[in-house]
Design goal:
Strand order of the largest sheet: 1-2
Largest sheet: 2 strands, antiparallel
Structural class: alpha+beta
Number of domains: 2
Distance between the termini: 120 Å
Number of helices: 3
Shape: elongated
Radius of gyration: 39 Å
Number of strands: 2
Length: about 140
């Protein structure tokens, strides 16, 4: 019986040693993965900091104004171009003109405008500054 007890104890000790070795190996692999993930997270933080710095440089108002002047040709708004929202007629207050006005959009595309304000809107203070061909009769 002592032999059976000795063999059982030995087999339990071997089994425990194998389980301990497997657990130790798994912990070592998981620690390696954790180290790799922490390193990757640190690299991402550095990349995010670099991108935020680049974003701040690219969004400097002086740089954007210089690029806009060189490539887009935008100009500051003139006081005559600004009007109150109440001064803009509703679409229902416009009528179809008999002739069209050819305009070039900022994109370079040509289009024709045929809507014009109805006669009662022509005396509106917000529309009095418009050129005759836009606000006038056809």
């Amino acid at each position: 019986m002592t032999v059976k007890l000795g063999l059982a104890s030995l087999s339990i000790a071997v089994l425990a040693a194998c389980a301990l070795f497997a657990m130790k190996d798994q912990v070592r692999r998981l620690e390696g993965e954790l180290r790799d993930l922490r390193e990757a997270a640190g690299d991402e933080v550095v990349a995010i900091d670099r991108l935020e710095t680049e974003w701040a440089i690219l969004n400097q108002p002086g740089r954007i104004a210089r690029l806009a002047a060189a490539h887009v040709g935008l100009q500051p708004a003139q006081p005559g171009q600004i009007m109150r929202i109440d001064d803009i007629p509703l679409r229902s207050e416009l009528e179809l003109g008999s002739r069209s006005l050819q305009v070039v959009l900022p994109s370079g595309e040509e289009t024709s405008l045929r809507l014009k304000p109805r006669a009662r809107l022509l005396n509106h203070p917000g529309l009095s500054d418009l050129p005759a061909q836009v606000g006038g009769t056809p």
